[in-house]
Fold:
Amino acid sequence: MSQVAQGGGAAAVPASSAFPVRRRRKFNYQSVLGTLPMIITAIGVFVICIIFSVIWSFTNSKVFPNFNFVGLAQYQRLWTTDRWLISVQNVVIFGALSMVFGMVFGYLLAVFMDQRIKQEDLFRSIFLYPFAMSLVVTGLVWQWMFDPNLGIQAAVRQIGWTSFSLAPLVNKETALYGVVLGGLWNGVGVTMAIMLAGLRGVDAEIWKAAKVDGIPTWKTYLFIVLPMMRGAIATAFILQLTGVVRVFDIVIAMTQGGPGISTQVPAIYVIQHITDRANVGQGMAAATMMLLPVLLLIVVQGLLQWNAKRKQGRA
Amino acid sequence: MKSLLSAVALTAAALMSSTAVHAADVEVIHWWTSGGEQAAVSVFAREFDASGDKWVDTAIAGGENARSATLQRILGGDPPGAAQFNPGRQYEELIAGGQLLDLTALAEKEGWEKLIRPASISSACLVDGKWWCVPVNIHSWNWAWASTAAFKKAGVELPTSFDDFLAKAPKLKEAGIIPFAIGGESWQINGAFGVLQTSLLGLEKREKILKDKDLELAKAEMPAVFTKWREFKQWSDEGAANRNWNDTTNLVVTDQAGMQIMGDWARGEFGVAGKQPGVDYACLALPVDAPTVSTGGDIFLFPKQSDPAVEEAQLKLASQMISPRVQALFNNAKGSMPVRDDVDMSLADDCMKKGLEIIKNPANIAEDAGRWLSNDTTGQMNDLVAQFWSDDTMTVDAAVAKYVEILQNAD
Structure:
């Protein structure tokens, strides 16, 4: 594929260099050829597959996808299933908690790293290291630490504090918070790295000006620097958001959705239904529901962009 | 010159290798990965290789994962030569879709229908007069495993019934023993729940509910099962969440827990630890006063192949799997019961002999619920029973209502 693209590119170069760049709107064969593999992948994998997912969500497909349409029956079942309702609730709680704490701790860590501390490289590596680990490994490690019979609780009790209790995963009320903690430990380093890059990108003159004006350091961080690193914040936010919507492996590793069904999340529901439970229709209905908030975000973003462009055009 | 020579040599080698190997490679997907299981599956592989063909082993941990992989491979047009499933409805669509090799001719030649017992085992593979798979063993869920030492430590006799066990549970707890060992995975919870259901309702009512979907009977009988189940929950330990079945069995093996309700694959764990049935542990066939055996187990199916040589090898493998010699070697290693009566099970331990005795009478056979319920329905029941187990605020009435709803919508 890449050979074809290169060949096309080589042939196109002399042709375009013969004419001075006048007609800007001329169709750019080179770039289209070069991106063709990506275009095919994007349309083939994303657009077409998504369309089929949505179509199959209106059928009673079992193992083999079929086209026996059953209307909204799959959605009706989905929204009357306790497990799905709990899954949706969980992903919202999980998302809100890990985003808020992820951003706050990420920023605090970045500010801490920004204090010209000694061994900054070492600390940065330590904080970033968890992210290099697979979420399955992270999840298993935290599962062991939270295991009442062999984890932190057992260790502290052995020392002598016998009433000590720290085993969030065994209780259906607290299990989700245990998972949030594991996820935070894994992801907060990346947020920190992005925020730190943002902090370092702020012009040193700003800091000098703030010093001259006698503004306390914490106020400078909060009210002057923070608003200036919008780009870094948006990047960290989007990265975390995608992590939340597709959260799957850490839950599987830490709780398998339990105790009972108390830490189930939508992605597990989808995967389980299209594989072992052999109910592709139901799985696709759930997948379509997962797509909905993402689509909504894209539409809102598109509208905002369009609006901004229109304003620019007027001005 | 040199390159010409090597080219000739290569071609010759290629020709020779393609003519010398008459036999075919058969890739087999299964989920037997623990120590005892691997010893068992290598019996199949060894016998098959000895006959000149080649067993290509694809072990995938976890039944759910292995079955998914097989289904995806068949859907994607790259089917394995053979694949393990549980008997029941897991592969009904593969049969209907014409994806499987028809074994009828072989089965009729060898008389499978007559030699496989009980009859309900063959019904998993014999669909509308045609054979689509080979049953290789029988596993029963209807067992409880009790630690003799744990009960002795508590100063009580081994339990004789569920109520008797519940009455003795406080004594066990006082002695620092986990009375009821269970792992928090939903299949374990629902499996043990099913055993309790069989024991409380009897085979006939159970069949009416699960097979004929008698909703009125379910409404009348299931509250008692859920109520009793909650009593059991009170005697489990807090470490139950997310615990594997074999780690749970290990609690009984090491006398930290009193009793576990688990299928007969648990026996292997006791065996590996060098424990003796009747001395170190007791195997109780449930219900104790009228023991039953459920017809779970494993089957192998053979997806259709384009290469006739592979097809021939598939048929050979199918025939071997059910032959008396392989059945004896395999099931002795696996700790399961053979699907035919005429095999040498002299190596079997007391617990298996107990099971073999029970299975002789067709009245003791509890057909596996997977024969009547699709994986989708079973999955919904897993979710419900696990939810009920972990959530003490869920009332029995609410649970029964959900149970009836699942039955009503079962496909």
Residues 73-314 of chain A form a domain with the MetI-like fold fold (CATH 1.10.3720.10). The CA atoms of residues 149 and 159 of chain A lie 14 Å apart. The interface with chain B takes residues 62-64, 77, 81-83, 143, 147-149, 167, 169-172, 175, 254-262, 272-273, 275-279, 282 of chain A (CB under 8 Å).
